[in-house]
Amino acid sequence: MALSRFLPSRIDHSQENKVSHLSRTSLATVESLFPSDHHFNHALAKALYRGESSRQAPANIEVIKNPVSKGGSPDSAWTVKAVNDGKSELLWLLTKRFKTWTPGSGDVWRLQLMTISKDQGWFPMVANNLSSEQSWFEFGIRCHTPDSIDSTLDQGISTFNTGAIGTPKLDATTGSELRWRSHNNFLFGHNFRSTEGIIIKEDHELWRYLEPNDRLAVYICAQGRGYENHCIDGSLRRFKLSRRPGLPLHVIRMILRMAGIMAPHPRILKTEYVSAQDKELGLWKVEGKSSVAEQDLWMVTEILPMDVIQNIAQVQLTTYSRDQGWGNGLGGRSYTWFSLGVFQRRPGGMYGPRFDTELWISHRNKPGVPYIGLHTGKLFSASEEPLNLLRPGDRLVVWMHAQFRDWVNYCKEGKLFCWEYFEPTLLTSEGD
User: Fold this and answer.
1) Which of 93, 208, 210 shows the shortest CA–CA distance to 144?
2) Would you call 84 helix, strand, or coil by DSSP?
């Protein structure tokens, strides 16, 4: 199952150890976005629940550049020089008509202008203002004019006469031409440099004014005595977005479980000890007698209902234990250990092993250590035995083992830690 289409883009690449099966498209880290794993889990679930925009790779929009104001050589530039303190400008780029543009459609565009440009490269002595905002680029909209020349422009014929480029779109309230600044040149740049403008996002004002058959226009601008704008090349890039609707909760649960997203903190399964402690030492004890291992049923969990079993992601046993405290020359191996098993309910209400001989080793004591210490067992995941063999009404059980004469397994305490799958149950109560 391809899960990448369900992922919100802002959290891709964020937590490789947890979202290893999901595609990654962002460079953010979980530490920079979320203060804890719990916050990360909720952010992921909410994004799936609410829906998300996916972004395609950027592509250049086909544009027509003004051929008039650039010289014949490849190194020559489009140039605008401010006259007195007023604004001077040059209509530089035009897109083709947006023939299929429909406001509110499912596909949304983001735009960004990139230029290779510079200002005059020095501080104009006659200038009254020292600012990088005196040499810049901006967007406008040209309305469609029903003229035969307009169709020839879409075929790539280089003509920028009045009939072809349409008329500027005006603000209905103020009557002024609609313009939006993209970016400024670097102040006093001696060399041409590549500069990226702001990203015109889907909620930008520009989209509310753009109508079918309109064109986007880009202007080269300069203002203030002595200021200039020189541009040798540029492009208009688009990022096309497709909005994915929110997913139902049962699908979100499935995605989170397939991705291995768990609650950050385990809980301790409720258990009871069923074997008797050694009264002298106050410890549980199993003694080896021969090459046939001795074993004793030590702990059992409470009855596990279906909803608990389905929510278990992994289980791990820890014990405070030791062996007899000295070795006896058997190659340094440990012959005292703990294992997990499964008990089922039998006729008459009694419980017994579901599998008479099948046990799953958790861990062994360190051999020859004379003091009680913490031992951490294997992580058993929900996809492997014995967890995938559990049925409603079963119990997990823990056995103590010792093999060979003089080997003794002593244990003071044990705990079964259970990690559960993250459950997005609070989504609908948080105003979503």
Assistant:
1) 210
2) coil
- Segment 281-320, tens digit of pLDDT: 889 999 999 999 999 999 999 999 998 998 899 999 999 9
CB 92 within 8 A of CB 65: yes
Give the span between the Cα atoms of 313 and 257, in whole angstroms: 8
| DSSP one-letter code for 201 | -
pLDDT tens track for 206-220: 888 888 888 899 999
Residue with tokens 């080896």: 288
Q: For residue 220, what are the β-bridge partners?
A: 90, 137
Cis peptide preceding 386, ω within 30 of 0: yes
Ordered DSSP codes for 244-255: EEPPPHHHHHHH
Question: What are the DSSP calls for 267-333, one per residue?
Answer: EEPPEEE-SPPBTTTTBEEEE--SSSPEEEEEEEEPPB-HHHHHHEEEEEEEEEEE-SSS--SSTT-
d(CA 154, CA 208): 24
In the predicted structure, residue 356 carries a pLDDT above the cut 70: no
Average pLDDT of the chain to the nearest whole number: 78
φ, ψ of residue 388 in degrees (nearest 5): -75, 0
User: How far is 354 from 339, CA to CA, in rounded Å?
Assistant: 15
Nearest to 121 by CA among 102, 107, 135, 105: 135
Which residues are bridge partners to 244 per DSSP? 52
pLDDT category at 108 given cuts 50, 70, 90 is: low
Taking the C-alpha atoms of residue 45 and residue 256, their distance in angstroms, rounded to an integer, is 8
Q: Residues 340, 397: contact at Cβ < 8 Å?
A: yes
Taking residue 264's Cβ as centre, other Cβ atoms within 10 Å add up to 14
In this predicted structure, what is the pLDDT of residue 27?
A: 31
Query: Lowest-pLDDT range, 82-96, 323-337, 379-393?
Result: 323-337
Beta strand spans in 56-159 (E): 59-60, 63-65, 78-81, 87-95, 107-118, 135-143
Q: What is the pLDDT of residue 248?
A: 75
- Cβ neighbours of residue 169 under 8 Å, at least 6 residues apart? 140, 141, 142, 143, 177, 178, 209, 214
Inter-residue contact 111 to 238 (CB < 8 Å): yes
Give the distance from CA 351 to its chain's centroid.
46
Residue 56 pLDDT > 70: no
Mind spelling out the 3-state secondary structure of 34-50? Answer: CCCHHHHHHHHHHHHHH
**Bridging pattern class, strands 215-223 and 135-143:** antiparallel
The pLDDT value recorded for residue 321 is: 95
80 and 173 Cβ atoms separated by less than 8 Å: no
